[in-house]
Structures are given as structure tokens and as C-alpha cells.
Amino acid sequence: MNTKPKKENIHFYECPECHLHYKEKEWMSKCEAWCNEHHSCNLEITAHAIENEITKKRLSS
Ligand SMILES: [Zn+2]
């Protein structure tokens, strides 16, 4: 019998409005709420998006 180890998919939450991805559902909800209301980005929220975390790492290295 072949017992493959269960591959855990890392799941990101996508804001349906601006399509940024978050590791935490909480931030995605905040982003979605903000996007719905203001139709713009809140830098404090989008700073937590995967896309911006990658940018930050690129800049610091
Ligand atoms: Zn958003």
C-alpha cells in the first residue's frame, strides 16, 4: 500500500474586490469591507497582503 503523506495546501484568502491575497481571513475581511465602502486601498490593510509582503522582502534583501 502506498501511503502518501498528506500535502497541506497553503490556502490564501482573496479579497473579491481588489484581488489581493491574505494569509489571515481576518485581514481579507477587513480589506473586503474597506474596498466595498471606499473603493480604494487602505495601505495599513494591504500591507498585510501576500503581494506586499513579497515586495517588502525583495526590497530589504
Ligand atoms: Zn481589498
Task: Report the bound ligands by name, code or SMILES.
Answer: zinc ion
Q: Work out the strand percent.
A: 5-15%
Q: What gap, in angstroms, lies between the N and C termini?
A: 45 Å
Shape descriptor: flat
In round numbers, the mean pLDDT is 87
| Poorly predicted sequence stretches spanning 5 or more consecutive residues | none
Radius of gyration: 15 Å
* Structural class by secondary-structure content: mainly alpha
How many E strands? 2
The order of strands across the largest sheet is 1-2
- Total helix count? 3
Helix and strand string, N-terminal first?
EEHHH
Question: Major beta sheet, specifics?
Answer: 2 strands, antiparallel
Number of domains: 1
Share in helix: 40-55%
Commentary on this structure:
This protein has helices at 25-38, 43-46, 50-60, and strands at 13-14, 21-22. The chain has 61 residues and is mainly α. The protein has one domain (13-60). Strands 1-2 form a two-stranded antiparallel sheet. The mean pLDDT is 87. Bound molecules: zinc ion. Zinc ion (ZN) binds next to helix 1.
